[in-house]
Design brief:
Two copies of one chain form a homodimer. Chain A has helices at residues 10-21, 23-28, 53-62, 79-85, 105-114, 124-140, 157-164, 179-190, 195-204, 213-216, 219-232, 252-260, 322-337, and strands at 2-6, 34-40, 43-46, 73-74, 90-93, 118-121, 145-146, 170-176, 242-244, 263-274, 277-288, 301-307, 312-317. Chain A is α/β, with parallel strands linked by helices. Chain A folds into two domains: 2-154 and 322-338, NAD(P)-binding Rossmann-like Domain (Rossmann fold, 3-Layer(aba) Sandwich), CATH 3.40.50; 167-317, Dihydrodipicolinate Reductase, domain 2, CATH 3.30.360.10. A seven-stranded mixed β-sheet of chain A has the order 4-3-2-1-5-6-7. In chain A, helix 5 (105-114) packs parallel to helix 6, helix 6 packs parallel to helix 11 and helix 8 packs across helix 9 (195-204). The longest helix of chain A is centred in the middle third of the chain and has 17 residues, at 124-140. Chain A starts with a strand and ends in a 7-residue tail after the last helix. Chains A and B meet through helix 7, strand 13 and helix 13 of A and helix 7, strand 13 and helix 13 of B. Strand 13 (312-317) of chain A pairs antiparallel with strand 13 (312-317) of chain B, so a sheet runs across the interface. Chains A, B: Residues 164-334 form the Homoserine dehydrogenase catalytic domain. Chains A, B: Pfam families: Homoserine_dh (PF00742). Chains A, B: This is Homoserine dehydrogenase.
Chain lengths: 344, 344
C-alpha cells in the first residue's frame, strides 16, 4: 500500500509512531505499507520511494516543523500534491473534526475518493454529516472507505455491526460510547465526590479535556450513535434527530440512591428501530446488574446490538488513547489490504 | 453464489429454513444465493437452475426422504456429482463431527478446496484436526474457508480475533465457550440443586444432550479453544496439548462458598501466549465480579482477548440453537460474497 497521511496532529503522529513500532510485525505478516506523504496544514514531506518514518520521528524530536525535513520536506507539499501526483492508493484523513461543515476533511475525502484512492478516516465530522454521499462516491469509484476509528476507536463497534451481524437485521443499538463520562460516573460511585470534583480529577489525569462540553453534554456519544445508526440502518439522520442529555445534572445523592438499589447510572446512546422508524436518544439511564452494560466501568466502552437471527451481540473494551486510535486506523488499513470490502 | 449443501442434518435443514425466511432480506441486500445441491448420506437433490427451497421444505413435511423429491431428487445425487459437474462456487459442509478422523467432512472439504470451491463449514472435526493444511489448500486454490460456526456459532469469536484485532498481537484468549455447562453452573447458583439435578433439568429442556460427556467433561470447550488458538496464533496443536477438566466434580457446597465470597465458578478455556510458547487449559475457575466473564450467565457465551495495541476485547452473546448456527453459516457466506478474505 502506498499511503498519504493527511493531518499531522495527535492521531497522525501516533499513527506514524505505531508504524515504527509494528515494523517487524507487519513484515512478518507480509503487509507492505509505504508512507509517501505526510501533510500538515503548513506543508509536509513527500518521498516517492517511501518516507523513512523512523528518521522522520527522530527529526521532529528536535525540530517541530516537518517542512524542514531534509528528505522531501517542503512548504509546497500539500493535499494538492497528492492529487496531482496520483502515486498513492490510500489516503488516511486525520484532520480536526468540524461538526458544522466537516472541513477540511470533507474536501480531502471527497477528492480522494473521486481520484480512486481508498480512504481511512479518524475524523468524525465528514462521516456524521455525509456518510451516505461519501459511501456512494467510494462505491462509484470502486474504492474502500474505512471509518472504524470514528465510533469508539479500538472498540470494534461499526465492524461488529457490519461483519459479525451480516445477514441478520439489527433491531436496536445501545452503548456506553464515551469513556470520559463513564469514568466520571464511576468515580462518583467510588467516593462521595460531586460531579464537579470528579470532572476536575478527570481533567487533571488527562481523561477529560480542558473544555469537556462535547463529552459531558452527550455530544460525543450522540455523534458516534448517529454514525452507527446511519451506517448500520441505512439512514440519513442528523444530530437534530437525537434527544441529547448529558451527565452534568448528576448528584452524589442520585448516585447513592441508585447504588442502594443495586443500580448504576450510565450515559446510554440508544437507537430503537421499529419497522424502519428510528428513535435515537442519549441520556442517563439507571441500569440494574442484569443489564449487560451495567458492568462497563471506568474508561471502558461497550456496545450492544439486538438482532433477529444472530441474537444479542455485546462488544466491550477497546483501549483508549492515541495509540489505540492509531491502531484502529491501522486495523481498517490492514483489512482493506486483505481485501475486505467496507464499501460493497 | 451457487451452492452445494453437503449434509442434511439439523444444521443443514436449519440453513435451508433460514434461507426461506431471509429471502426478502437477501434480495433487498442484492445478495443472490442459489442452492443447486442438497446432499444427504443417502442421495440428494440437484437442480442446475437452483432448487426451490420453499417447495422442498414443504415436500419434506410429509416425506422424509429427499431423494424422492420430484424436481431433481435421486439416490444417485452425491458429493461426487458436485465434483463432476463443477457448477457451484461454494460448498457448505454440515456433516456430523468426527474428532478422530474428521470424516466424511475432511474429504468433502479437501476435495472442494482442490476443485476451486469456497467452503463454509459447521463441522468442527476437520478444522480442529487440520486447519493449517486446509487453509494452505484454500490459499493455493485461491478460495475462501469460512469457519465462524465452529467456535461458538453466532458468537463472532474467530472473526473478532482475525478482523477486529487486525494489526495487534493477541497475548491471551479466555472464554466461556460452552453454553450447556454455563447453564448448569448457573442453575446450581440459583437454587440449591446438585450437579446431577441441574444436568437432568438441562437435559429435559433440550439444553444438554442425552449423552452430555462432550460438554460436561470440557471437550466441547477444548475443541473450540484449540481451533481459536491454532487459527489466531498460527499453531498446530492437538487436543492432547490441552489440560482438560470438566464440571462434573462441582458440589452445591463449593458453589455456596463461592457465592458467599461474591464469586462464581465458570468453565474457562484459556490460552496464554508467552513469547510464542502457548499454554492451554480448560478448567473450573473462580471469578470475582471484577472479571469480565463473571457476568456471563445462563446459556450465554463470551470470549476475551488481550492484545497489545488494541487493548482488551470482550465479545459476548450470540444466540444459541439451530437457527443461530445456520445464521452463522449464512454470515460467513455473505462475508465471502462481499469479498472478505478469510484466507489471505
Amino acid at each position: 500500500m502506498r499511503i498519504a497521511l493527511i493531518g499531522y496532529g495527535n492521531v497522525g503522529k501516533a499513527f506514524l509512531k505505531l508504524l515504527c513500532k509494528k515494523e517487524e510485525y507487519l513484515k512478518a505478516e507480509g503487509i507492505d505499507i509505504k508512507v509517501n506523504y505526510v501533510v500538515s496544514s503548513k506543508g509536509g514531506v513527500y518521498n516517492p520511494d517511501g518516507i523513512n518514518i523512523k528518521e522522520l520521528d527522530d527529526f521532529i524530536k528536535t525540530e517541530k516543523d516537518i517542512t524542514k525535513y531534509h528528505k522531501g520536506g517542503g512548504s509546497d507539499v500539500s493535499f494538492s500534491t497528492v492529487l496531482k501526483n496520483k502515486d498513492v492508493n490510500t489516503v488516511i484523513e486525520t484532520t480536526t473534526t468540524n461538526k458544522e461543515t466537516g472541513e477540511p476533511g470533507m474536501t480531502h475525502i471527497t477528492l480522494s475518493l473521486e481520484s480512486g484512492f481508498n480512504v481511512v478516516v479518524s475524523n468524525k465530522g465528514p462521516i456524521m454529516l455525509a456518510y451516505k454521499k461519501l459511501y456512494g462516491l467510494a462505491k462509484k469509484n470502486n474504492v474502500q472507505l474505512g471509518i472504524g476509528c470514528t465510533t469508539g476507536g479500538a472498540l470494534p463497534s461499526i465492524n461488529g455491526g457490519i461483519i459479525e451481524l451480516a445477514g441478520a437485521e439489527i433491531m436496536s443499538i445501545e452503548g456506553v460510547l464515551n469513556g470520559t463520562t463513564n469514568y466520571i460516573l464511576n468515580e462518583m460511585e467510588k467516593g462521595e465526590t460531586t460531579y464537579e470534583e470528579a470532572l476536575k480529577n478527570a481533567q487533571s489525569l488527562g481523561i477529560a479535556e480542558a473544555d469537556p462540553t462535547m463529552d459531558v453534554e452527550g455530544w460525543d456519544t450522540a455523534t458516534k450513535l448517529l454514525i452507527l445508526t446511519n451506517v448500520l440502518m441505512n439512514k440519513e439522520n442528523t444530530l437534530n434527530d437525537i434527544e441529547v442529555e448529558g451527565i452534568t445534572s448528576i448528584t452524589p445523592k442520585m448516585i447513592n440512591e441508585a447504588l442502594k438499589q443495586g443500580k448504576k447510572y450510565k450515559l446510554i446512546g440508544k437507537t430503537i428501530n421499529k419497522d424502519g422508524e428510528v428513535n435515537m436518544s442519549v441520556r442517563l439511564e439507571l441500569l440494574g446488574s442484569e443489564h449487560p452494560l451495567y458492568s462497563v466501568d471506568g474508561k471502558n466502552k461497550s456496545i450492544r446490538y439486538v438482532s433477529n437471527t444472530l441474537g444479542d451481540l455485546i462488544i466491550s473494551g477497546g483501549a483508549s488513547g492515541l495509540e489505540a486510535a492509531a491502531a484502529s486506523v491501522l486495523r481498517d488499513l490492514i483489512n482493506i489490504y486483505r481485501g475486505y470490502k467496507y464499501v460493497r
